[in-house]
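Input:
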Amino acid sequence: MTELQAFISRETEFYADYFAEGGSLVFSSFLDAVLSGYEDKIHVSDFTDDERDEILLNALRMMQMMEVAV
Amino acid sequence: MLIRPIDPANMKGLAGRRIEDLSRFLDHSSGLFRADIPDFASAVLLSANANGDRIPDIGYVGAQSYVKKLLEGNSNVDFASKVRAQDSEFDRAAAAGFAIAAEGHPVCELVETEVSLPGFRNRIAISYYRLICPMNFAGKRLLINLSLPTPYCPISRQPERDKGYLVLN
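Output:
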């Protein structure tokens, strides 16, 4: 597991309460899918600051959207 | 702005094939999100709270999405509000498809319009295909949108046109 994936795993657990049963797994899959969009990047150090901000911003916006989704 | 329905099978070029692939995937997965979803890096996830008056709130913007490319350099802002700020008519016209998808009906359209882009003095005509489908994400309904420029859209040919200009001058 890369450093970034470990970070995502921790964050996903932290936010698990936002989701129905199995939802945290979906969110983990979502983050994996997000990261796969950055080709050939595996370690945290491979990402630029802007890319890291972009990933976290996407995760944050998704959390906010999930809070009000039905 | 002109928006008209189009069958994914009748879309031209690579853009058409990519949209058809995502459409087929969502058919087979019954709209369930999975990590192996095709072209996710080019997709956008939005709220299914869509009333047709405005483009719904945006949750995820793919790193290689058309929306991000259009608004490059503004990745920390609310994309939907940025689009609205450019053209309120665009917002209303574009919003209709999201409202239809929010009711559970996939939408596949050809959009032709004009936009102002950073670095361009004049408004330029663009055309793109867009697929909007309802998606079940962790038990909740969201919308997924994949928009890709058509093969005949000036933006998609811009690098080649720039190169031609440099060669001639």
